[in-house]
Task: structure prediction
Amino acid sequence: MRKIFVVALVLLVSGALFAQNNNYGLSIAGIKLTRKGIEHPFTLSADGGFNLAIDCSEDTGNVDIVFVLDTTGSMAGVIAMAVSHINEFADTMESTGYDYRLGIVTYGDGFNFPHGLDPTPYVDTFHAWVSPIGSGGGGDAPEEALDAIMAAVDSIHWRPGALKVIILITDACFCKNTSTCIDCHSAWDPDTVAKRLLDEGFMLFTVTRTSPWNSGCTGITTTDCYNWYHDIAESTGGSWYLLGSSFSSIYRSMVDYLGIYQTIEGYVANNTPYTIDTMYAFLDPGTCITITYGDNPMMRFNIPPGDTAHFLWRVDYITGCTGAGGCFTLSASADSYSVGAPGCMYIPHCWCTPTVAENIWPETGVWSACNPQEIRIGIYDDDAGVDANTIEMIVNGIHHALPGDTLMFFANDTLTFTPPVDFFSSGDSVFYKLIEANDLGGCTLSTPVSSWFRVDLDPPQFSANYPADWEILGSTPESIKINIVDLHSGVDPSKAGFVVNGSDTHYLGSPGVTYSGGVLRFSPRGIYNWTKGDTIKICAIAADRVRPEYCGPNQSEFCWNFTVDYLYLYFVDTIVNPGDTIRYTLFCDDPYRFRITNFELAIAYNPSVVTINDILTTGTAAQGFSVSWDTSGGLLRIVGTGTERMPHNIKFIDLLVQARNDAVGGSFTPMIIRNAVLNRGYIGYYKDDGTILLRWHQVQWMHHLIFTGYAKDGGYLEQTALTIGCANAATNGYDPAIDLLILPPPPTKTEAYLAINDPAHPAITRLGMDFRNTYDIPQTWTVVTVEEPGSLYWDPKGWPDGLITLNYIIDMKAESIYHYSANETLYITYSQPDVGFGTIEFCSQWNLLSMPTIITSPSWAGPFEEILAGPFQYDARTKRFYNITIPTGGYGFWLYTTASGTYTIGGVPIDSISIPIYRGWNLVGSVARTARFETNPPGLILPGAVYGWDCSSGTYFIADPDSIIPGKGYWILSSGDGILKIKPR
Result:
């Protein structure tokens, strides 16, 4: 670059005001001006005056810059940002002509360490010093900033004559020598440090918080600490900056301060043979010179013989000032000696006004997604105008110049550099510098302009999503997560989020959304309650940090699906013989996909019907699990834990179940899965309960029937007892050794007998005891009553397993009396029909139900804990409800339950049944299959007079008499007495 130099004429002041050539006493040994890092010594003339002229060269001099960094835990991000702009800072220093050196001192919790005593001119070396620096500690708030500053002052090898610059970066207050904090070991107080900096010509720049972290043990308030950081920086010619500001802008501002820092230094020699206790120096400036720092007069103490005292004042000088305004007098005195000398200086305005330039676009250090990214630099000249043909710039080491370069265009004071598409790649750092731009008069560029930006054309990338694509879960997941990384500008957390099923968007800050360590998480529980069969589509969205004005942000989306499918647990209804031991399996669909490693089961059962002998895991899905169990209170509780998840299997676990020998034949126990906790509740389930039903016992038995007739003249006749039963040795005919004949009784005794027709014994037609065989069931006994009506009594207990009915209707296990008419023939039937299952469905309120089976066990409700009230049947004759123990087949009943569900009823399925009905309302039931109502005589049910009950709404509805639902009860309105037949449709 061509430079213009103009030598300025200096007005010399002749004659010494005081003797200069006397070698005894005091003498002015020299005066110098330091400006822009260059020492300018004044020239001593023959008559004792000192003179200085500065030319128009734009060159600058030496500057040593030492960073003093607080490395406590809270400073990690700040240090990284400060260091990230060092390259740009160094480029600016170089472009403005400074011969710079960089050094560093770190401190934290009492450790001060200069990284190399000699500052380095190489940015790469400086980065090598800085890159391993970590951060940590600092929990007590104040740090030893004063000691670190003085470590820089006293330990660094500052170049003679160079501007000495210290940049302090901290977020905490300083310790001082009187602080009582546990980690404060300072040897300095702030006043002494300030005086040293000022007296020795250091420029201090401070970058701090407005409220530095502090503790009461420092002995200084937070406000006073901030004021010291602020005031000492300005007092030394530097400046204070807010921590968090752009380091790019901070560094540019610092360069401007370097250009206006000026000092006048005087050197006074002690030519006496003894030590001078106190020497005074006084600078008397002209009107164009202002002292900005330095005592005046200034004192120095204990100057040995032959030694020289140094005095320094920081000054401002009005450029272009001529005459006496730019002159000063330096005088000194000690004891009876004094000396003085005049000095004048002149720094002219240059006639050649250079072109000036500034970076316009892009901003320094930004990330850009523009492809291509245009570069614009403003170039200005106020007098002759810019000569476009002299413009030269360097972009990433490649030289570009006008005229001729098609990528460059200059118009309206703006140089535009437009690279082709894909000229830069993602991750590139693009450095560019305007190195030449003359004006039409030949004046050169005042200062080269450099800047840089970074290229990011790629959106964030996704990986490691959970749940995996199309993974099957057993419940709403505890968290949904995905790794998001952006290799260049970084992920913008404010734009990261999840879109659920294409409609609901959850960004960072929404409930349940976090972003940490590159992982975006969403906790859907409490927000969503996904259940079996749900398929959920998740889309993760993210954007990087490229600003919109730089074609950003780069955005991306990643979508996947997962499903919720609960584990199906179920028992199978089973019929067993009394006394049998069976392996009763809790089945499941494949549990492997749910990764089940622990479970808890609660299974309700009727301990009067079966006992649980063991829990078996061999060959089941719980194979390899440690299992514990107990059966207290008729509730089987099982706890299982495995080191590996359950394998593929359709068997969850096996119960070793024994049917009790003392249980009534035809009795049953529901096996109700009360609760299943799978993987501590993170896996849902649905279930079907099962039932274990016992077949009939085959036993020998006998039962007595007591007949009491009514006398014609009032009162009762004597009782007659008949006996029926089954025995292994009996036959269906007359057995002389077993059966007993009965003869016509006397007139005062009730006459009734068991009729028999045995071709082998034609004379035997009446029996008082009739046993039948046990292997030919069903059996029917015919009982004949004569002349008088009466009542038949029996004990409903003690009958054998099976059904005992009177006249095919009356359940003799449920009733105990029957009133017969004169000459009535009664039929008692004993049968053991095949046992089976039926179901009833119920709601959590009043239910109108009926039994699909004939109940043969008094404990039919067993573990059916949901019953709160009932069952209640209705007597159509008395028009009243009454509580019953076992619901009667063919009749309806009311039941109040606290839960909803389906209940399996064991017993003898009712295929069809006939029951008496009476004039008015009757509460009737159904059978095991869809059925229809018929009456005898026909037409007793009035049209539209059949009502069912909707338990979900709690209302009646008109039912179809030709479509009667199993397990449901109905109100019917009968026009008279008769028989209701409930038949399969």
Observations:
- The longest strand covers residues 668-678.
- The two ends are 112 Å apart (CA to CA).
